[in-house]
Amino acid sequence: MTGWRGSGPMSGVGERLPCAREMRTVAATFVQRVTLRNRLPLDYSVASLRVVDFLVDGLRKNGVEEARVRDALFGLGAYVGEVLVRRAGATWIDFDADQRFYFGESTGVRMPDGRVWNPLGKVRNCFAMGSSEESLRAFYLTLHGRARRPVA
Fold it and tell me: DSSP secondary structure string, 58-124?
C-alpha cells in the first residue's frame, strides 16, 4: 500500500494535495490499487470500516514510522471520508484557513447537520493510538450529524 503519494495527484514534495472535488477519485483509485492484489472487501459499507481498522492496525504492528506509510494512511483516510459521503450523507469540502490550521488537512467532510469532520486525521490518529483505542468503525457509529438513512 505504500507509494500512494508517489504517483498521481499527490506525487512529489511540495505539490498540492487533492481538493474536495477530487477526493472521490482519490478514494476509488486507492481501493482499486489495494484490491488489485488482495481480496479486501472495501465496498464503502460501514462494515468495511472494520477492514480499515485491521489494515491500520497491521501497518502499526509492523513498527513502521508514520512517514513511511503516509501515502497508505492518506488513501485509507480518503476511503473513510468516502464512506461518510456514501453512507452518512456527508459532502467533501475544502477547509478554510482556520480549519486547515486546526485539522492539519486541506479537505474534510461536512455532515448533513453542518458539522465538519476530518477523516484523514482520524486515520492518522488511529495509526498513532492503535485501532483498538481509535476504531474507525466506532467513529462512524458514534458520529454526530449523519443522515438517518444511507445515502448511497
Answer: HHHHTT--GGGGHHHHHHHHHHHHHHHHHHH--EEEE--HHHHHHHSSSEEEE-TTS-EE-HHHHHH
Using one digit for the tens of pLDDT, what is the confidence trace for 109-126? 999 999 999 999 999 999
Percent of all residues in the chain with a pLDDT value above 70, rounded to a whole number:
85
Alpha carbon separation from 58 to 54, 63, 131 (Å, rounded) = 6, 9, 9
CA 92 – CA 111 distance, rounded (Å): 9
Domain covering 4-141, topology: Four Helix Bundle (Hemerythrin (Met), subunit A) (1.20.120)
What are the domain boundaries of the chain? 4-141
pLDDT tens digits, 1-19? 333 343 333 434 445 789 9
